[in-house]
Design a protein that fits this description.
Layout: E1 5-11, E2 15-16, H1 26-41, E3 50-54, H2 66-73, E4 82-85, H3 91-105, E5 110-118, H4 138-143, H5 151-161, H6 166-185, E6 196-197, E7 203-204, H7 216-219, E8 241-250, H8 252-257, E9 264-273, H9 283-294, E10 303-306, H10 311-321, H11 334-337, H12 341-359, E11 363-370, E12 374-382
Helix pairs in contact: 1-2, 3-12, 5-10
Length: about 375
């Protein structure tokens, strides 16, 4: 039976909004991580059967199929196709699922999965602002009594449902920054980050969103986004950022033929739908489904990447699953590193793959909430254990 393995996984450093990557076209940023895959593995680009790319804000510079445009910008042969998918924040995690499924089905021998988002150049929600109407039709609105789908409100609702207070959310956020800073200092991201040469000739190689010396006292001074009596602030939510990531996927048989040593196997891939009003609780049932299909228990998983869209999302997931918090986002998460929407799923997978290899952990699970009430969950297996 065919399988799907990840031979290499790379990402750009994440730039904060209007930071080091603000002048870089998202297609060119995508091209740089594509080229890093072939340079690091030594494979010829023309072996790639398809590039499956995640991107949320598909307007302006991110319109017109950036997956295909990245292939062209990378200088790869014109014969290599590319497509772009959008499953909200889980777009590039879903790209990995599609790439793995295509390899297992025999439709691909070699595929690239990844994604990009330049939130400095294409502000979040840009596609909704072009004057072409509301994506939520009257039928959808009537089904949910006219309640507006709002991620901030969903994060607040999770906090209330699970009894997660502002103090816990701020303390968790500080831990995210502390862990990310420690990972940078220890060189734990070095194997996954592709240094990006900028137009001014400088090289960008370190995530720039991490705030060293952050404290709960400092975060407590921030005003909640939805009002004084609320919990969610800019300090305990993910950072708006720019970045791209890519993973090279093939069968283990093909990897052996090419003389490549896989980093991990895509063991299980799931996606679920959930209430689009609360919206952000999806990682809970997605995790349960992934474990069920994998025939594994929570205790079998040695590392988790739970996207830190908001601290309350991780808090609810921890409360419901009972997972060991020390195993969750051990190198920090989106609160510290950033959340470049369409590129985040692949970024989490990239970080998880390299963490599994470095730590000697066999199984890792990643999951993330998605707009519209969905969530992906992926279990990766370290093949060197």
């Amino acid at each position: 039976m065919r399988d799907a393995v990840i031979v290499d996984a790379v990402r750009s450093p994440l730039g904060r909004r209007n930071g080091r990557l603000k002048d870089m076209h998202p297609v060119d940023l995508s091209a740089d991580v594509l080229n890093a895959l072939t340079e690091r593995t030594g494979i010829a680009p023309d072996l790639v059967d398809d590039v499956i790319w995640g991107c949320v804000g598909q307007v302006g510079e991110q319109a017109g199929n950036p997956g295909r445009n990245a292939v062209l910008a990378a200088g790869w042969p014109e014969t290599i196709p590319g497509t772009t998918i959008e499953r909200q924040c889980g777009s590039s995690q879903q790209a990995l699922h599609f790439a793995a499924a295509g390899v297992i089905a025999g439709q691909y021998d070699v595929a690239v999965a990844g994604g990009v988002e330049s939130m400095s150049r294409i502000p979040m929600g840009s596609a909704r602002r072009v004057g072409l109407g509301d994506p939520n039709s009257d039928r959808i609105k009537s089904r949910y009594d006219g309640i507006e789908f709002n991620q901030m409100r969903g994060a607040e609702m999770l906090a209330e449902q699970y009894g997660i207070d502002r103090g816990w959310m701020d303390a968790y956020s500080v831990r995210s920054h502390d862990r990310a800073a420690a990972a940078i200092d220890a060189g734990r991201f070095d194997a996954e980050i592709v240094p990006i040469e900028l137009a001014d000739g400088s090289v960008f190689s370190v995530d720039e969103g991490v705030r060293r010396g952050s404290t709960v006292d400092k975060l407590s001074t921030l005003t909640p986004i939805l009002g004084e009596d609320r919990y969610v602030t800019a300090g305990n939510a993910s950072q708006i950022s720019d970045g791209a990531s890519a993973l090279l996927v093939m069968s283990s048989e093909r990897a052996n033929e090419l003389g490549l040593r896989p980093l991990a196997r895509v063991h299980t891939a799931t996606v679920v739908g959930t209430d689009p009003v609360t919206m952000l609780a999806g990682p809970i049932p997605a995790t349960a489904l992934a474990l069920k299909r994998a025939g594994l228990s929570l205790s079998d998983i040695g590392a988790f990447e739970v996207n830190e869209a908001f601290a309350s999302v991780v808090g609810a997931w921890l409360t419901e699953t009972g997972a060991d918090e020390t195993l969750v986002n051990p190198n920090g998460g989106a609160i510290a590193l950033g959340h470049p929407l369409g590129g985040s799923g692949a970024r989490l997978a990239t970080t998880l793959v390299h963490h599994l290899r470095a730590s000697g952990v066999r199984y890792g699970l990643q999951t993330m909430c998605e707009g519209g009430g969905m969530a992906n969950a992926t279990i990766l297996e370290n093949l060197s254990v």
